[in-house]
Amino acid sequence: MINKLIKRDAYVNQLKDYINSDFVKVYIGIRRSGKTSLMYNIIDELKSMGIEDENIIFISFESREYAYIDNSKQLDEIVYNKTENLEGKIYLFFDEIQQVKGWEKSINSYRVFIDCDIYITGSNSKLLSGDLATLLTGRYLTINVYPFSFKEFLKYKNEVEGIELSNDSINRLYDDYFNFGGMPGILSLGSNEFKKLALKDIHNSILFEDVVSRFKINNIDLLQRFTRYMISSTGEIFSSKSIKNYLKSNNIYTSQDTLLKYNEYLNQSFFISKCKCFELKGRKEMKILGKYYLMDHGFHHALIEDNILKVTKILENIVYVELLRRGYKVNVGRNNDNTEVDFVCEKSGKYKYVQVSYRLTSEKTLNREITPLLRIPDKYESILITTENHDFSKKGVKHINIIDFLCGDDL
Question: Three-state SS for 22?
Fold first, then answer.
C-alpha cells in the first residue's frame, strides 16, 4: 500500500493549519483503514516544504525494527538517541502507539523537551481517555480516519490502476464498492475471493489484536459468535437479551453483562459504530439502545455467507459511514407515533433528515418512505436516498441517487 498511495486530501487539509503547531496530531480509526498511509501523506507534505529526511522520524510498532518496544522506557531511549544530534524542528511519527505501555507521558515529555511536531495513530477509541487527555488538555487534535469513501475509491482506481472514469465505469465500480467496501488494503486485489480472504484477515487481526489481546478475552468462541451476530444484524435495534436468547437456542449460555462488554470492545476497536436513537419532538437522545453499523460494510459480504443482509441495510450502512466522514453527528430519529427516520444529521446546530431505500417500486412505497419525514415537527431539509435515477422528489423531500450522493461533497 505504501508504494501505491493516493493523497487523501480531506484528511491532509484538516491538518495543514496545524503543521508546526504545539498540537499533538492524533489519527484514530479501525485497523488498516489507511492511518499509516496518511502519515506518509503528511511526510510528503513536509518534504515539499523543504524538511530534510533526517528530521523526519517514523516509528511503526508493527514493524520488525521496532516490534520489541513495549514500554515507554524503551521508546524514550530510541527517540532521544535519534534526536540528540539533530538541528531544527524534528517531526515525530508514531504508528499504532497503543502497543507501548506508558506512551502518554513519553509523548508529553517529547512535546516539552524536544523542538518537535508530533503525529500518532491508534486503533482504539479510548486512546485519549487516560493520561494523555489530562496531560494535553487543549493541546491535541483528533482526526477520525475511515476506510476509503467512494470518491477516494474512484480516485484510487483512476490514479493507481489507470481506469478512466465514465458513467459506465463508475456504475461498475460502485457495484464493487457496494459488495466489498473501501478498506484500502483490498483495492489492488483482482479476485473477489482474494478480497473476501483479505477482509477475513483484517477481521481476525481486529478481533485478536484489538479485542482478545487488549481485553484478555478467554472465551474466544463466544466472542466470535457474538461478532457474527452483530454483523448479520447490521442496522437493527440492538438488544443484549435477544442475542442471549439466540445463543441459548444454540446451547450457548452467557450473561447480558458479558455481551454488553463485548459490544463495547467492538465499538472501541472501531469495528462497529453505535447510532443512538433521537426523539425528534423533544430533540434529545433516547435512553433505549440504538442501532449498530459496520465501520466498513464489506465485512458482511466476506463473513456472513449464510445470512444475506437486505440490500437496504447495506445501503444504510454506506450512507451512515459517509455521513460520519462528512462531519455529521448521526442518530436514528423517532417520531411520537413511533415512525422512524433512518438518520438525523446534525452539524453546527443545524439538522438534516435522511431516509434510505434501495428501490421505490411503487407510489405506495414512496409514500411509506417519506411519511416519517413529513411528520417531523420542524422544517429542516429532508432527503431520500435510493438507487433510482429518476427524480422522486415530493412534498419538499429531496430525492438523491446514491452514486450522486457519494460523489458529492455534502447532502
Answer: coil
**Spatial CB neighbours of 309, under 8 Å, sequence gap ≥ 6:** 232, 234, 235, 300
Q: How far apart are CA 194 and CA 90, in angstroms?
A: 40
Q: Cell numbers of 182, please?
A: 473501501
**Of 139, 100, 93, 138, the residue nearest 120 (C-alpha):** 93
- Beta strands 381-386 and 284-285 are unpaired
Q: How do beta strands 397-401 and 381-386 pair? A: parallel
Contact 23, 141 (CB under 8 A): yes
C-alpha cell at position 139: 493541546
* Structural domains of the chain, ranges and CATH numbers in brackets: 9-145 (3.40.50.300), 193-407 (no CATH)
State how far the Cα of 381 lies from the Cα of 6, in Å rounded to an integer: 34
Q: Which 3 state secondary structure label does DSSP give 141? A: strand
pLDDT for 222-248, tens place per residue?
Answer: 999 999 999 989 999 888 888 888 888
Angstrom distance (rounded) from CA 103 to CA 110: 11
Q: What is the pLDDT of residues 145-159, one digit of tens each?
A: 999 999 999 999 999
Q: What cell numbers appear for 123 in the block?
A: 486503533
